[in-house]
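Worked example 3. Consider a protein that binds zinc ion.
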Amino acid sequence: MRINRNRIVEIAKELIKYKSFTGEERYVGEYVSNFFENIGVEYKIFEKEKGRPNIIASIGGGKKTIAFNGHFDVVPISDESLWETDPFSPELKGNKLFGRGSFDMKGSCAVAMHIAELLSKEKINGNLQIQLVSDEEKGAEFGTKYVIELIKKGKVKKPDYVVIGEQSDLKIRNGERGILVFDIKFRGRAAHTSNARHDAVNSIVLASKAVLAIDKKIDKFHPEIGSPVISVNMISGGKIHNQVPGECVITVDRRTIPGETKEIVLKEIKEQMNKVLDKKNYEIMNIFYEPANITPRDSPFIKTVSQTIRDVLKIEPEFYVGRGGVTDARFYRYMGIPTIIYGPMGKHAHGPNEYVDITSLEKQGKVYLGLIKNLL
Ligand SMILES: [Zn+2]
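Given these inputs, the predicted complex is written out as structure tokens:
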């Protein structure tokens, strides 16, 4: 059984042609369903909302299940003039396949589909599940999160292992930072500008002091995930030019590492602000939190993945410890399922001239085949 890189490119090109922005995944979903239909692989379509398909294909049976998960929604084009090719007319230049979604992550979806095609007539030990989903780019409520609801209800078989083909430079991404987003509302005292030095407390000034106190490098490090990071990303305050603003709100995005909880982080932030502000001047509100999550390096699953990479690619596996954002992997890790990201090389995900490296897709495919053999 051999991975055919030209075939991966062909499938990826078809996928890239669809303008499957998040919320508009219907037609790419039809293409994917037809693909499985044509190769005679069993599949089901699950939609939490009409026109938002999640396609789950299944090959084999038996005890253990490995799932390859990928999303086929893409982010919009912000400035088409910056593209050197038409983002929806995929172009292969040397080893690079250009187009919106090539890297994030239709190239990977094509790898999984190609593997389904290779194995469609084979007998495999255990069960291969391929999940191609909607809505990854906007929180996954209609995508992987919904698939997990179906797993919990027993409508989709619960995988023993999950591999997600998001970009990872062919390194093992075995954990990711958590996300803690919240607002801080600053209360001053509104007054006419002429009284700015008498009666007023300017809430924008309060917010500014707080921003400078909290928006900085954090001196912590987790060997498998990296450092936490904080950024103040939104601010609003003031109503009119001649009134000292009484209220100002900022939105803070803080990414956490294992060992940090919501409580620990918020306490740290309050301590930093209390050095420059009176605590009665601010209030933390609208807190959203999903913890950091990890499948440990010394777990049997990661050991098998590492050995597979050694066997197949003849290289020592590397781990991806980086600045990645959150992925659908977190939902599976919260369920206790061993999960990794393992995906291609490329550049400019979400930006102009996005491309995926074709050789890395081919290698990804070889490793995926190896995982099926070694894990099932
Ligand atoms: Zn992605």
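Take a moment to read the result before moving on. The chain is about 30% helix and 25% strand. The radius of gyration is 24 Å.
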